[in-house]
Design goal:
Arc Repressor Mutant, subunit A; PTS-regulatory domain, PRD; 5 domains; 26 helices; 15 strands; PTS_EIIA_type-2_dom
Length: 641
């Protein structure tokens, strides 16, 4: 646990990039400030000639060698329980007749009792792998299919890798140092991506690392005479073409001849995990689709569009998502889930989009009967976000007036420069060429002026007649401030309507986990007749689908469906932080929306999460929010800046 917390500390500092106090970091990790200091020393010890974490009067921040420390931290130290566990699993996988417990204990320099404890930990790894660990006298052996054994290797490799990214060094630690090397895999991966693109496929770089990992595992197992015997039943031209490509590349780069079973299996992985058809016609794509999958996707997308008021019910979106879901069905059958290193950032940066994805995933689970994990939900969120990005409304642009006293065509040149450099952020709707314009009559969001205004204003940006890079940066910064100010102003108006002093508790009881906290907060809203007990249970079900800890400090549990009698938010403050999902939080906001406030959902949901994504703001609210009145005062003060 200590090493895991060291890694989490390093990840927090790397992600935030700012100075953090020991107390703040301690809250995030659920430890004492003294422990933070010891973790910092341990992390810095990973890079003896560098600095992974800097220390100073303001606390700690990631240093120049943070990335090196992260890589060093991923490798288990020889002799540690984690290293022994992986060594033991490799021995079991490489020995069909089993291992001798006493000989293995001697080779690892541990007692038989310690090895027995390690074997118990191996059993804990076998869940979902269809493998069993048998013990007969002094012999221990794994029982299960070759495919199941490869799933276990995949599980170990993922345990070694950081955030789901492909890491050849970690893979070699899993397979053993005698396995394939970097010189072979660099050219292999490059040529694979290039040839798949040449065949007309879009390649998912987030998923190809996983497939390359499976190819490495297959190559390693084949060299140990452990090839797959089962062949795929897919006889399509695309499947045969990809299988042939893999056969050529593995022989050329890895020196391994794939058998029929491995060739067909790996081709299926490529087609279902890393490629999508390259802009096919709708008719061609639909011909490859299972009608049941398309119907299920269409139904849940149309329902999500109506419930969340998002513009996603488009034919091209439904078709692309249906193709993705069909591949997801294949992955589910193989238990070969696709990792997504963007899961955490998507959840914290685009909480509403991620929630729409959770809604879609829930509907697909019910209609198609497939479990959908967080990483797979993140891929759905990427589809949703892409659709919404393409359909953003023009009214999101800020309007601007250029003030540039007339001199030849100077104002025309300036407008052309502004349109070229800032056209995606602002829309110029007027140009004033007088040296003494009526400043009060200019009502656009921004005023870009080459002369000093009569009175300074936050919306007036002084620029040069010939636009410079510094001018562009100042205009973009001003536009960002205006957008943020408007968003938070709307948030303040909405939140003041939705809070209630009787739905506030400081000192959450986390003894019964997330469900206990949700029930505690939910009971306060039930007492107000805002929701019923069924809503509380549905909020718990929603939490089980994907954690609602959208930031390192805030969880926003809620049920899918806006069925509250009126919109209310119950607040729970935890000081120190409490476990939630895979992290820890200090604020839990149980949100119950009514049908009449459907349009406010996006504003409240996303901007509320945005406020609590700023660590300083969270600490201020948590420390000073000793009761409901103080909490609301601090929240409003933070929103007002």
């Amino acid at each position: 646990m200590t090493r895991a917390r060291q890694d989490r500390l390093l990840a927090l500092l790397t992600r935030n990039g700012e100075w953090e106090t020991a107390a703040t970091l301690a809250d995030s990790l659920g430890v004492t400030p003294r422990s933070i200091r010891s973790y910092v020393n341990a992390v810095n010890a990973r890079v003896p000639d560098g600095t992974a974490i800097e220390s100073g009067p303001s606390g700690y921040r990631a240093g120049a060698d943070a990335a090196a420390a992260q890589r060093a931290g991923s490798a288990p130290e020889a002799g540690t329980p984690r290293d022994r566990l992986h060594t033991l699993v490799r021995s079991l996988l490489d020995s069909p007749d089993g291992i001798d417990v006493f000989e293995t204990a001697d080779s690892l320099h541990v007692s038989t009792a310690t090895l027995d404890a390690d074997l118990a930990r191996v059993r804990g790894l076998l869940g979902g792998t269809e493998l069993t660990l048998e013990r007969s006298a002094s012999t221990a052996r794994l029982r299960g299919t070759e495919m199941a054994q490869r799933r276990l290797l995949s599980k170990l490799a993922h345990d070694e890798m950081d955030a789901g990214l492909f890491d050849l060094a970690a893979l070699r630690r899993t397979l053993g140092e005698g396995s394939v090397g970097a010189r072979a895999f660099g050219p292999f991966k490059s040529e694979l991506v290039g040839e798949l693109g040449g065949m007309g496929y879009f390649v998912n770089e987030f998923g190809i690392g996983d497939v390359v990992m499976h190819i490495a595992i297959a190559a390693d197992r084949i060299t140990r005479d452990r090839a797959l015997e089962r062949a795929s039943t897919d006889s399509s031209a695309a499947h045969s073409e990809v299988a042939g490509l893999l056969d050529r590349l593995t022989l050329r780069h890895l020196g391994v001849q794939l058998g029929t079973g491995d060739r067909e299996h790996l081709a299926t992985l490529v087609l279902t995990r890393v490629v999508a058809p390259g802009a096919p016609s709708a008719d061609d794509a639909r011909a490859r689709l299972d009608p049941e999958v398309e119907a299920s996707v269409r139904a849940v997308v149309e329902q999500a569009a109506a419930d969340f008021l998002v513009d996603i019910a488009h034919e091209d979106f439904i078709l692309r998502l249906a193709l993705h879901v069909q591949n997801l069905l294949h992955r589910a059958k193989e238990q070969a889930w696709s990792r997504n290193p963007l899961t955490r950032s998507l959840k914290s940066t685009y909480p509403m989009i991620f929630d729409v994805a959770v809604y879609i995933a829930s509907g697909l689970q019910q209609s198609l009967g497939i479990p959908i994990q967080d990483d797979e939900i993140a891929y759905i969120a990427m589809h949703v976000g892409g659709r919404l990005e393409r359909s953003r409304r023009a009214d999101q642009l800020l309007t601007a007036t250029i003030v540039c006293p007339g001199y030849y065509e100077l104002h025309e040149l300036l407008r052309s420069s502004v349109d070229r450099s800032l056209g995606q952020a602002i829309e110029v709707v007027g140009v004033e060429t007088r040296v003494d314009p009526d400043w009060e009559s200019i009502d656009t969001d921004l005023v870009l002026s080459t002369i000093d205004p009569a009175r300074p204003s936050d919306r007036i940006v002084r620029i040069q007649p010939f636009l410079t890079d510094s001018d562009v940066e100042r205009v973009q910064a001003a536009a960002g401030r205006i957008r943020r100010g408007r968003r938070l102003a709307r948030l303040r108006t909405e939140l003041e309507r939705y809070f209630d002093p009787t739905a506030f508790v400081r000192g959450i009881d986390a003894g019964e986990g997330e469900s206990g906290v949700i029930r505690e907060l939910g009971s306060m809203l039930v007492a107000q007749s805002v929701i019923d007990d069924d809503y509380v249970e549905r909020a718990i079900e929603r939490e089980a689908l994907s954690s609602t800890a959208f930031t390192d400090a805030l969880a926003v549990p809620h049920a899918m469906g806006m069925t509250a009698s009126r919109t209310r938010i119950a607040i729970g403050i935890a000081d120190p932080s409490i476990p939630w999902g895979e992290g820890r939080v200090q604020v839990v906001a149980l949100v119950a929306f009514s049908e009449t406030d459907r349009e406010a959902f996006q504003t409240v949901f996303e901007q509320f999460v945005e406020v609590f994504s700023e660590r300083d703001s969270v600490q201020r609210i948590v420390r000073r929010g000793t009761d409901f009145a103080a909490f609301l005062d601090e929240l409003v003060a933070v929103i007002d800046g």
